[in-house]
Write a structure and sequence with these properties.
There is one protein chain. This protein is an alpha+beta fold and 805 residues long. Helices cover 40% and strands 26% of the residues. The protein contains 30 helices and 30 strands. An eight-stranded mixed barrel has the order 22-23-25-26-27-28-29-30, surrounded by five helices. The longest helix is centred in the last third of the chain and has 21 residues. It is elongated and about 165 Å long.
Amino acid sequence: MPVSEPTSHAACLVDQNAAIVTWNAGCEALFGIQATFILNHPIGVLLSDAGAVEVALRWPSLQQAGEALQLKVEFARPAGVPRADSAAALEADLTLLPQADADGHFSGCVAIFSNLQDGSESAQIGSMHLRTVINVLPGTFYVLRDDATFVLWNKTLEAVTGYTAEEMLTAQALDLFDVTEKPKIDENIRQVFERGDQVFVEANLIDKDGHGTPYLLTGARIESNGKFYLCGMGLDISLRHQQEQQLRLRERALHAASNAILITRCGGHDNPIEYVNPAFERITGYRLEEAVGRDSRFMAAPGMDLEARALLRRAIDERREINVSFRNQRKNGELFWNDLTVTPVADEKGRVTHFIGVINDVTVLKQRTAHLEHEVNHDALTGLANRTLLWDRLEQAIHMAQRNKSLVATVMMDLNGFKKINDTLGHEAGDEVLTSVAKRLLSSVRESDTVARLSGDEFVLVLVNQPSLRFTLRMVQRLRQCMSRPVVINHTAVEVGAAIGVAVYPHDGNTAFDLVRAADAAMYHAKATKKNDVHFFSSDMKTTSEAKLRFEDSMRRAVENQELFLMFQPKICLRNGRIMGFEALLRWNHAEQGLLLPASFLPEAEENGMIVPFGELVLEHTCAFIGRLAQAGFANMPVSINVSQREYSKPRYVQYLSEVLDRFELAPSNLQVEVHEEDLGRNQLLGAEVLGQLSELGVLRSVDAFGDGMSDLNYLQKLPLSHVKLGKAAVHQISPQTRRGPMAKCLIDIGHNLNLTVVAECVETRAQMDFLRTNLCDEMQGRYFKEPLSAEAAEQLLLAATSSA
């Protein structure tokens, strides 16, 4: 309710007995009581009980002193007095002015009702003083004259500008703005005064120190006593400006991003595109106006990557984030690989309203990866499958044979007289022979079969889905015939024969290893005849298995009799030549055969399970060596050990390793665990889990023989690795003549792209070391620097290096 108008016209005359004798129209309007119903009633009937008592008590003083009396009273509705329905309980100031007759005697009073208001909450608020209200406003408040000086303002304006109340009296509104914004402010003020416009303007209020604060200012014209004024308020919009700047920055970032970004509305089955950035237009060929309003499925390559698209559809339906890769079509019809990340965006109520998609064109990466995977899994000279791919294909063939109840033939082939060809005609001629043999073997088998080159002049063939031994015999006969023809080199016919051994699943073995071992035994029987013979594995060849059992017994005795010991090969930094650590290498001082290197007994140990006690012995001796180095002053010299899948697949392996480290009181970072890349590939989940546990423990983690077999780069980049070690094959491909090693360089680059320390092993020549250093390999080890050393010699090497530094 608005504040009531002043009540100067509401007055009545009261006689010496306090009875109402006159009642004007102002009283009637204010109280809603007609004169005929109130005259001759005492004035107290208009008042509350408290008010009537107070008037009665003060009435004698009016009669005697003759001075005016002013009271704050509450009026009540008189009993039995008709009153207009619109009238309500009133509060007002009551002024009683004493009156005298001609003789000077008190004759009554004039009662004047002023500041009259009703008693409601809205009326009380409405009667508050204007300054009280404007000074609690969060924004600025001001009233300007037509010369832009201030009539009224609030404390907020003083606080923002730094002006005192005295300074505000003489200040002009334009003084509060920068010179560049004064014309705009002046124009808006004139619009208010001249045209009565309501204006809104954004400008910086400048304080006395010259600092500006952005404000949204308003103005409207009001009139008082025939004069116009500008009344307005201002709101601090600093936060809004910051938010707008952040939005503009994000928008520029979206436009500048090299990845394609699109925003779609969450619309159910279809999610229409609302925004794409310039990178999207560049990658897909579709302009913004061509993409907006369409579901992004319009770019899908028909019939391709359906599984990945189903995963994406499910994630969108479930309103969750997902990363998938599939092929899309550009506007020109060209296919590209799209690594897509989709993230849902929720509103303030948690309801998903949009999706943001980030497209990364990984076509080139996919092509490079496919090329690299082919190189990693195939022999560089012949293009045949290498050892790693062979094992994979053979295991697949066995699984398929188990389902189809068929046979699998494993054929081992060793060329006869190949060393003589190399010695007499040269290695280039030998390479031509190997290439020709590879082509002949491929042409003699089916596409579903596999031809692999193991090493040197050894080949292995996997003949899948063999319906009978008779069928296998015919295929082997075809292989023998293709090998009977000479190879022509430089117009010279070179006779090339081969010893061939054959093992058949399931008769000769149930695993890939068993089949290759059986075929190898059969091939050596064929080779013993020194003819181009074919031998199938038979029971009389099982004597080899008996020899293996005897060998296993000697392994057990080796552990009991302490015939096993460690040598330590140093790793050096290729940048400064410092010793960075050691690798622990196992040796066997066999009671009958003398000193044995790992290659002569570890494969058998892996097969028969002795690799586990061997590994425990290696860990114990390595920890003792690390402790020895720490006592000699080399506390941060990590030593690496090789761990096979058979070892780390044991339950609680990492806990066991941690307990050994604790027993020797060693920091986990002093131990590095090397896991063969081939082992990781056999059980990726287990490998990732164990490496993750080692990472949490603080042990260094490395992949051994990187590049010697088939590499799953997508898998490797997800592993918590610290190092990667180039395999022997990649290092030995470095040519001493041309000083080129494309495989090694490629693997070094991959390791660095994965943020790993790259170590090269088996470095045997200066040319290899120079190439590795030139191509930024981090560390190396091998005979060129040092042969494996005893613990004492390794300690002396460190001491010598320290004293010479």
